[in-house]
Specification:
Blueprint lengths: L1 E5 L3 E3 L7 E9 L11 E3 L3 E9 L5 E14 L6 E16 L12 E3 L3 E3 L1 H11 L28 H12 L1 H11 L1
Parallel strand pairs: 1-3, 7-8
Antiparallel strand pairs: 2-9, 3-5, 4-6, 5-6, 6-7
This protein binds zinc ion (2 copies).
One zinc ion binds next to loops.
């Protein structure tokens, strides 16, 4: 039993009878959930598969699979690359109000009519955003001296650096002094 594709994560319980189950698909713009980052660009809307089960007492069990794709800069070589970001949520909403109940981390409340999982999806995706994106674990990054992209080219800095280090190495100076004695 599938509905057409929606553009929000807000569900009207009038569409769902008691003891009934429904699967929804939604394509949601990240900006509409307040998802915006300077260092990551969403290049696809959030593709959401949401299943709702309304129990006899009006509590609603929610299972949601969310997928999207972002473009980020590699922290080593600063090349942009694409990453899939996914999250899976399982939530239980009871009828009530958060301000009246003793709120616990896993408890969700709704007014019995309108169920909104936007904030849960936003928080779920925020947790999945890569904190230190690397285009590859093997990425060689940029040469700290000349800025060459070491994945694609070899620069001559390394050998130059080595000879410079040898010349200024205090131990080599010391050993020369010891030899002279
Ligand atoms: Zn890289
Ligand atoms: Zn270099």
């Amino acid at each position: 039993m599938r509905e057409g594709i929606r553009d929000t994560l807000v569900f009207d319980m009038k569409d769902l009878r008691h003891e009934d189950f429904k699967a929804f698909e939604a394509l949601v713009l990240p900006a509409s959930l307040g998802l915006a980052y300077e260092e990551a660009e969403f290049i696809e809307p959030l593709s959401c598969a949401v299943q709702l089960f309304r129990q006899g007492n009006d509590s609603v069990y929610v299972a949601a699979d969310i997928e999207t794709k972002i473009s980020v800069e590699c922290r080593r070589c600063i090349s942009p690359f694409e990453v899939d970001v996914t999250t899976t949520l399982e939530l239980l909403f009871a009828v009530g109000s958060e301000s009246l109940e003793q709120r616990e981390a896993d408890e969700r409340y709704y007014d019995g009519e309108i169920l909104d999982i936007s904030e849960d999806v936003r928080q779920g995706l925020v947790l999945e955003m890569p904190a230190w994106p690397l285009c590859s674990e093997m990425c060689s990054g940029l040469c700290a001296r000349c800025g060459a992209e070491l994945n694609h080219e070899v620069c001559s800095c390394e050998t130059t650096d080595e000879s410079a280090v040898h010349d200024s190495n205090p131990f080599s100076v010391l050993s020369k002094m010891l030899e002279n004695n």
